[in-house]
Amino acid sequence: MQETHRCQGALWHYLDCDSFHHMGLSQIPARRLMAGRYEESSYEVISVFPGFEVRRYADSVQARVRIEGKNMRDSTAGFRRISGYIFGRNDKGQVIAMTAPVHLWNDGEGEIMAFTMPSEYSLEDLPNPRDRGVKLVNYYGCTLAALPFSGLSGTRRSGRMETKLNRMVLENGLSPSGSPMLAVYDNPTSTLPFMRRNEILLPVEDL
Fold it and tell me: 34-88, pLDDT tens digit by residue?
């Protein structure tokens, strides 16, 4: 199924090293996971503040899956479903390049995990998922405040970063317009904690 969505988000889930092992990611070669040489979400930095920046993201296409439940087994199933799509579980058996980061949020009805498709693809170009739970979505770019951080991205750490970004945004006279997302760039099974790239992304009103 193909859908159209605008900027949205809320942080409820996370990826860390233990999560990757449970999700079966350790079985996928590190070169096929996350950042490094891979295409990243396209954006323009429109303003820089102490500790964070504001970006305007380009339109893109995402493959999304809803994670039913909140335990590790549910997360494992969700990741395998969405990664299965790009690794060939679609109606053409087509392998689609991995990009970075992986986004995670809550849409008010449950948890969502999303992979951004390479910019060469439009919604019409992409093969249809064989898994009906994987949705292809036109994502219309929006303005996001971005707070980068390294290390682990578990719920406690991400929650602190979320609170910090929200405070800084308000202190600088900006208006949050949605709930935050977690963006994870690196594979925890092959990247030392101090080298991992993570971000909290918070929708804000256009400057």
Answer: 445 789 999 999 999 999 999 999 999 999 999 876 555 555 677 889 999 999 9
| Boundaries of every domain in the chain | 2-203
**Which CATH code is given to the segment(s) 2-203?**
3.20.80.10
Dihedral sign, CA of 4, 6, 10, 16?
positive
Separation of alpha carbons 123 and 147, rounded Å: 29
Q: How many alpha carbons lie under 13 Å from residue 26 in its C-beta half-sphere?
A: 9
Q: Are 131 and 81 in contact (CB under 8 A)?
A: yes
Identify the burial level of 129 via C-beta atoms within 10 angstroms of its C-beta, where 0-12 means exposed, 13-18 middle and 19 or more buried: buried
